[in-house]
Amino acid sequence: MTGVYATGEEARKKGNKINRVGWWFKPWFYQYAQAALKKGEFVEYIPTREYYHRHTRSLYWEGKLILPFGDQFWFRFLLGWLMPPKVSLLKLTQGEAIRNYYHDSHVIQDMLVPLYKVGEALEFIHREMEVYPLWLCPHRLYKLPVKTMVYPEPGFELHQRQGDTSYAQMFTDVGVYYAPAAVLRGEEFNGTEAVHRLEQWLIENHCYQPQYAVSELSERDFWRMFDASHYEHCRRKYGAVAGGDLDERLLQVEEGEEDREGGAGG
């Protein structure tokens, strides 16, 4: 699926189809796209705002797990305007059993992967998690004068790989959201171990894990994945490091004064 911007006049020309995918009674977009594959090649026009939010109502493809009948025509037609449910509300109201299910039997991961390593990442995800469908979104990391926590691979500009320029390296956001195939088949799946192995692969391949995802990173591995130099520079510049030492010294002084007062009173 590829797209280019078009004017309203062009879209309204005779014979053109305008598909307002955002209407609440429309099929969820990922299911519509799945069915569209069987139609062969065709062209349609989607309002830009509705295209941007094409996965909002169904929470990508997670809505099916949260509300199994949410994709049924009668629900979409009568109550589709209720979707998507507020994720923060779902988290507040879910019980311990559901929380454990999402931790142990469900995957919510995003990762920034250099474009030329996406094939390896997909093979790893299939081997460790076997989750489909997957979300792929291009993301450009710029070479900046100051090294930030997330940065391109050193010397990337020398290789002239596809999508790279002299000033930026092309990455891809790989989103993995759903229940692993092993869980759907009723087999054992250790979510903690799978995420840990994924994080180690990301570290070894200069990839990054957004921290809204489930993370098993230790402090040491966190700073192996993200560069701490600028962060530590800011802490030193604004006294965040010295501040802790000062608080400790003040506490020792106050304790000493209390000891002297106690001795005088005795």
UniProtKB/TrEMBL annotation:
Keyword Cell membrane appears in the UniProt entry: no
A GO molecular-function annotation: oxidoreductase activity, acting on the CH-CH group of donors, NAD or NADP as acceptor
GO biological process, any: steroid metabolic process
Keywords: Oxidoreductase
Listed InterPro entries: Diminuto-like
Cell membrane among keywords: no
A Gene Ontology cellular-component term: cytoplasm
Domain of life: Eukaryota
Protein name, per record: Delta(24)-sterol reductase
Native organism taxonomy: Eukaryota, Viridiplantae, Streptophyta, Embryophyta, Tracheophyta
